[in-house]
Amino acid sequence: MHCAVIILNWNGAELLRKYLPHLICHTSYPHVRLIVADNGSTDDSLDVLEREFPQIEVIPFEKNYGFAEGYNRAISMVDEPIICLLNSDVRVAPKWIEHPLEAMSEDRNIAALQPKIRWDRDPKMFEYAGGAGGMLDRYGYPFCRGRVFDTLEEDRGQYDASQILPVLWASGAALFVRREIYLALGGLDKRFFAHQEEIDLCWRMNAGGYFVGVDTESVVYHYGGASLDMAHPKKTYLNFRNNLLLLYKNLVSDRYSSVMRMRFVLDMISMVQFALTGKVAHAKAVYKARKDFKRMKSDFAVDREENLRRTVNTSPQGIRTYSIVWRYFVGRKKTFSELER
């Protein structure tokens, strides 16, 4: 199976030095291209690639297109049937690529797949942005096997399986996609710029009848927060705004109004909580996110209509019927296994 592993880089010369040697060492599978798409870096990234990693192909962009559009442009420039979108701060483990490629070769209905993702800062722990595969609760909050809100679990093999496990969304930190399906669905939505665009893409794949999964026999380690720190108000803004856009684009009509009414209440609670705990910038970020969502919503009306027209699976199993806000904060259920019980 031919595959292109594409790393999107922006001013990440030190990350390239740290993580590319692992990728080169542990990617000996035949017919795999290793590519760095550079998003208009102004540091010495291109010099580092030329001097220290001549075996890596480079696609240079003249400016920073963001995560979504950067990958869309890079994927349009290669022709391998399987693409792996790999963050620049991911350390791959031995045999990380073999099993996902074999699984996607055997089952053409698999549209997207992620490895199990651990945290490179504490390798025994699951990683925040991926864990062992992503879900949404009934009100659109993302969570993972191995991570609920800010609670990370130690990986003790509790979510390992011999088969590919279904999820609603696979993490963009290390995301295998079938190029044909990716392009047919329009790829990542560049208007998101960054954060939750892979959830949007995977939801569209699930709704279209394709399979999205996690391969726990493959493991990578994600450092996380290398491009935008977890505590930055801009990350809060993008997560809240993009999550609302995600729901507007994909949620079926008979659930949309009730979900969005509850989300207004929950977002107001979040805003007040940020303010009362001294995180005024984050409270303002939530307010701005909701204001901008209201302003931007009309720009996504055609997308919503098209997504609903394409939908053949109105209830993907990765969308849970319970509220993680209630079970986590009131029921004190802190792990995925406890939530499921």
UniProtKB/TrEMBL annotation:
Gene Ontology molecular function terms on file: glycosyltransferase activity
Enzyme kind, highest EC tier: transferase
Listed InterPro entries: Glyco_trans_2-like, Nucleotide-diphossugar_trans
Domain Glycosyltransferase 2-like, first and last residues per copy: 5-118
Protein keywords: Glycosyltransferase, Transferase
Enzyme Commission identifier(s): 2.4.-.-
Alphabetized PANTHER family for the sequence: GALACTOFURANOSYLTRANSFERASE GLFT2 (PTHR43179:SF12), RHAMNOSYLTRANSFERASE WBBL (PTHR43179)
Similarity field: Belongs to the glycosyltransferase 2 family.
The protein's name in its UniProt record: Glycosyltransferase family 2 protein
Organism: Falsiporphyromonas endometrii
